[in-house]
Amino acid sequence: GPDFGYVHKEPLFEAVASLDSFGNVEVSPPVSVAGKEYPLGRILIGSSFPASAGRRMTRLVRDFLYAQRVQAPVELYSDWLAVGNVNEFVTFVPTSDKKRFRMLLASPAACYRLFREKQKEGQGEATMFKGKGTALDTKRVTINKVLSNDILAQQNQYVQRCIDWNRDILKKELGLLEEDIIDLPALFKLDKQGKAVPYFPNTVTMMVLARDLGIPKPFGPVAGGECCLERRIRALLEPLGLCCRFLEDVASYHGSLGEVRCGTSVQRRPFAFKWWHFMP
Question: N or C, which end of the chain is more exposed by having fewer CB within 10 Å?
Fold first, then answer.
């Protein structure tokens, strides 16, 4: 139709992997970095650790994205994840202040801080996964059990280091300050291959519908009749004028290493200007 076109890229001699999924192609909001403007934001793609032999996005697709220049790609380290997509640890939400957005990062450190707070308040026996025991874990899981699990703690220290490495890259390449970043509590565990999967539904993998956020329901410890993870996320995001809606996705997506965003799409309103006229 008029003003519509598409490009089909298919590698002939390379195998494709989960890093070629569209969850591994994100874009930042418009940013200004060291005096250079990116009015259409920057493409974010996940890759292996530099100089390692891990999984990478197919070269054909990477070359195509780099050729777009106006949204100069930023490569992040995502091969530490089982699926390996950048949307598993980073997303962006709109705000009405001068910055216009905040970057959200998955944070095991934030989760451990929250659980220790609740333990000190005498809520260590608060139970996770209520009503979802068989789908998420076969045993009764409490804050005390999570905090006493040394192997889980070590695994999440490793995950936090991976995320912190990406945090530094994102701050540099998107011109961000610490105040532009919000850490959402998250926990991971490592599979038999040493790759990370979410311990509970990963709230960073949310749908952003303007001010409404469709967030995977984490089924965290229930203290005082409310999930403490949901309460903390509301406290972080609602002051920005955002509306948090927690959606159950355990059977539909989480059990297959995905979340709400992996099986849904959002139709965006096109720009009013001719974006294809922008020069890098």
Answer: N
Catalytic annotation on 162? Answer: no
85 CA to centre of own chain: 8
In a domain, 2, yes or no: no
Task: Find the distance separating the first CA and the last CA of the chain, reported in whole Å.
Answer: 27
Closest CA to 159 of 78, 219, 229: 78
Alpha-carbon span 246 to 243, nearest angstrom? 10
Q: Is the pTM for the entire model greater than 0.85? A: yes
Is 161 part of any domain? yes
| CATH classification of the domain holding 36 | 3.75.10.10
Residue tagged active-site, from 111, 162, 227, 262: 262
Distance CA 253, CA 255 (A): 6
pLDDT tens by residue, the chain, 280 residues: 787 888 887 888 777 877 788 788 999 999 999 999 999 999 999 988 766 677 888 888 889 899 988 899 999 999 999 888 999 999 999 998 888 999 999 999 999 999 999 999 999 999 988 766 545 555 689 999 999 999 999 999 999 999 999 999 999 999 999 999 999 999 999 999 999 999 999 999 999 999 999 999 999 999 888 999 999 999 999 999 999 999 887 777 777 777 777 778 888 887 888 887 887 7
Radius of gyration of the chain (CA): 19
Q: How many residues does the chain have?
A: 280
